[in-house]
Each structure stands twice: as structure tokens, then as C-alpha cells.
Specification:
Shape: elongated
Order of helices and strands: HEEEEEEEHEEHH
Number of strands: 9
Structural class: alpha+beta
Radius of gyration: 21 Å
């Protein structure tokens, strides 16, 4: 349905802005370099930590977790970390942001959300300014503030292999 499509598109915008999965999942191992900051939040639990030599590290002995950070000796090199992260359930404020974006996309002038800046028929032309497009395609400052409150931006230290 059109409404379901708009919710999917709105969710994508929130995930893209935050850089987060948001829903609770356990991913393939994240490859981290020092400082060891887990990229997806909130961190729920850590299943395994393996150093660059393939040694399994034990929590409390070889490392400790402080929020989104794995605190251990940098001599371990790159770490492969399997962990569970995200919200379950998703906070109501984040749901509200997605619904607000979906509503804006649904009720936008046809074509505007795809970047059409001008349209005409029967000698009449309508031109949309960049702000009109941004108002549909981007997040508002209020929406970004809500997302940032739940998922603040952190420095990225993930090693892309």
C-alpha cells in the first residue's frame, strides 16, 4: 500500500541520518580498531570478542565494556565483536518521527519528493523552490533533535574490510 511504502521510506531516512539499524538485532562481527567503540547503539549485550590473532577475549579478564566502548589493551589489534544492539520496542518518540516523515511524504505535491522542481500543464507552470523539496525530502531540525537524543553521533572507528 502507499502508506506502507511511505513508512518504509521514512524509516530509511531515519536510519540513514542516524547511521543506525535502530531495531534490536545481532549482526555479523563488527571489525573494530582502537579505540574500540561499538558503532551500533544502544548496546544490549556482547556475545563474543576475538582479537586479530583469533584469540577469544573474556569479559572482566581481557576487556570490560563501558557503554558503547570495549576497554582493553590496544595490543590486541583489530577486534571482531558480535553483539546485540538496538531498541525493542522502538521508543514512541522515534516512531512518531517516522510517522511524521511518512505523512509529509504522503501528502507532498506529486513528484516533489523525487526532486521535480517544475511541472506544467495547459500553459500553467508551477516551480518549487529548493526549500520545498528539502521540507519533504529531508528531516526537520525537530526530528533530527529527537533522533540525536536517542542515538547521538559518535566518532566512527569501524575498520571497513
Amino acid at each position: 500500500s502507499d502508506a506502507a511504502d511511505m513508512l518504509v521510506r521514512a524509516s530509511l531516512r531515519v536510519r540513514r541520518y542516524s547511521g543506525q539499524t535502530i531495531s534490536r538485532v545481532t549482526d555479523d562481527p563488527a571489525k573494530l580498531v582502537y579505540p574500540y567503540i561499538l558503532p551500533q547503539r544502544p548496546v544490549v549485550s556482547i556475545a563474543s570478542v576475538v582479537d586479530q590473532d583469533g584469540n577469544a577475549l573474556a569479559e572482566g579478564t581481557d576487556y570490560t565494556r563501558q557503554g558503547d566502548v570495549i576497554d582493553c589493551d590496544p595490543a590486541h589489534g583489530k577486534l571482531a565483536v558480535v553483539y546485540t544492539h538496538g531498541f525493542a520496542p522502538i521508543p514512541e518518540e522515534l516512531r512518531e518521527v517516522v510517522c511524521s516523515i511518512a505523512s509529509r511524504l504522503h501528502f507532498a505535491q506529486a513528484g516533489l519528493e523525487r526532486g521535480i522542481s517544475s511541472e506544467g500543464a495547459d500553459g500553467e507552470t508551477t516551480t518549487y523552490g529548493f526549500d520545498a523539496y528539502r521540507g519533504v525530502a529531508d528531516l526537520t531540525s525537530v526530528e533530527m533533535a529527537v533522533i540525536d537524543r536517542y542515538l547521538p553521533h559518535l566518532p566512527r572507528t569501524v575498520d571497513v574490510l
